[in-house]
Write a structure and sequence with these properties.
Structural class: alpha/beta
CATH architecture of the largest domain: 3-Layer(aba) Sandwich
Distance between the termini: 65 Å
CATH superfamily of the largest domain: Vaccinia Virus protein VP39
Number of strands: 20
Strand content: 25-35%
Shape: globular
CATH class of the largest domain: Alpha Beta
Helix content: 25-40%
Strand order of the largest sheet: 16-15-14-17-18-20-19
CATH topology of the largest domain: Rossmann fold
Length: 411
């Protein structure tokens, strides 16, 4: 299906399919407080809209719904998916034409980064709900863009999204990442990526003081993990020299930061991805890049008596769904305890989590337990969140997903 054909279909779909969601009694309280998610158990009924009816000829559910309280109060317009736990994702205000709304929000998000940014080459331009575009993520790497779509309404409008980005930014190439498992929760296919324009196998962009190389066509997520930029910048000069372990290193952003701040540091990066480590070795030529499972490698290193003056743990999200919370907490506990056992008697310990379903309270609880069980005294001297270009809404703590904590361990 060509891009023009997709656009025509999306316009017809939007014009035909609109409905009205009525909430159960007293279920509007979170929405009135600014929260933008409505869960399926809060919906009393789906009604036809005044002008179109709630389903098309094929029985498809509406893309857009106007949301009302049980008493009839208008609460907003949102994206609807009856097959997801999050049944409605509210947009900003009353929306008449979704295409116009999307183009306007993309323009506003880009303008916000231009207003508060500092001309960085690698920037998150659109950050889903926080920019009023649920399920849309756009990262800019110089003259190229990486796009993720995880909601069915935005997937339908992908041609319009790409057109808006091209009109505003004129990129050389765009990668659309379609390999995210999160797409499955919205009933979207997980498959091969879409490439528009010139999309090279790898890119190099300035991140900090030096350029970092990374796989672009087949990189993890959007290619780089930009949410740690501010934490790397804040902590690199405080980690100190000596032996530094960078676990779950990916292509080496943390190691590059430490190497720039402390040229004499002896760096070791460990990641399960052979491809990631091949880039680590290029980005950190003075370091040791090891393609290995951290848990297996770490146990062997611990038994062999290997110790480090600083340990950085930046693992992937261990909690990918609510049914995996307990299992994920156990994973973090195991990773942090193993990492701490590799730290010398005195040193710096950095622990991170990017699981949205792990609260700061539970994250802190895991670390308290780890320090207690290992018999170590730890003093928190830094805590950080996602970088400035990943804005958050105070009314939605779920968006506050990234947690970074740095400790001095020892007497």
């Amino acid at each position: 299906m060509g891009m023009e054909e997709s656009k025509t279909e999306s316009e017809l779909y939007e014009k035909t399919l609109r409905g009205e969601v009525v909430l159960g009694k007293n279920e509007e309280r979170r929405v009135m407080a600014g929260h933008r998610w409505i869960f399926s158990n809060e919906v009393a009924r789906l009604s036809p809209s005044a002008s179109t009816g709630s389903r098309g000829s094929g029985g498809e559910p509406p893309l857009l719904v106007d949301v009302r309280s049980a008493s009839g109060r208008f609460l907003g317009t949102g994206l609807y998916n009856p097959h997801s736990l999050i049944a409605v994702r509210l947009l900003e205000g009353r929306i008449e034409k979704l295409e116009d709304y999307v183009a306007g929000r993309i323009s506003a998000a880009i303008s916000m980064r231009a207003r508060v940014g500092r001309g960085e080459e690698a920037v998150r331009l659109v950050h889903s709900e926080a920019d009023g575009l649920p399920g849309v993520v756009v990262d800019r790497y110089g003259d190229r863009l990486s796009v993720q779509i995880t909601t069915r309404a935005m997937e339908t409008l992908l041609p319009s999204i790409l057109e808006a980005l091209s009109d505003r930014l004129n990129p050389l190439g765009i990668r659309v990442d379609r390999g995210l498992r999160a797409r499955e929760t919205e009933g979207l296919p997980v498959g091969e990526d879409l490439f528009v324009g010139d999309v090279p196998e790898e890119l190099a962009v300035s991140l900090g003081e030096k350029a970092i190389r990374f796989p672009f066509r087949e990189g993890q997520k959007t290619g780089l993990f930009l949410d740690q930029k501010d934490n790397v910048r804040a902590l690199s000069g405080r980690i100190g020299g000596g032996r530094v372990l960078d676990a779950f290193s990916y292509v080496g952003a943390w190691s590059m930061g430490v190497a720039a701040a402390t040229p004499g540091a002896v760096l070791t990066g460990v990641d399960a991805s052979e491809k990631a480590i091949s880039f680590y070795r290029r980005n950190v030529p003075t370091g040791e890049g090891l393609a290995a499972d951290f848990f297996s490698w770490g146990e062997t290193a611990r038994k062999a008596g290997r110790r480090f003056d600083a340990v950085i743990l930046d693992p992937p999200a261990f909690i990918k769904s609510r049914r995996l919370v307990k299992e994920g907490i156990e994973g973090y506990h195991k990773a942090f305890r193993l990492g701490l056992s590799l730290l010398d008697r005195e040193g710096v310990f950095v622990a991170c989590s990017c699981s949205a379903l792990l609260s700061w309270e539970d994250f802190s609880g895991i670390l308290r337990s780890v320090f207690r069980k290992e018999g170590r005294t730890a003093r928190l001297f830094y805590s950080g969140k996602a970088s400035w270009d990943h804005p958050r809404l105070l009314s939605m703590p779920e968006l506050d997903y990234l947690k970074c904590a740095a400790f001095h361990v020892g007497d």
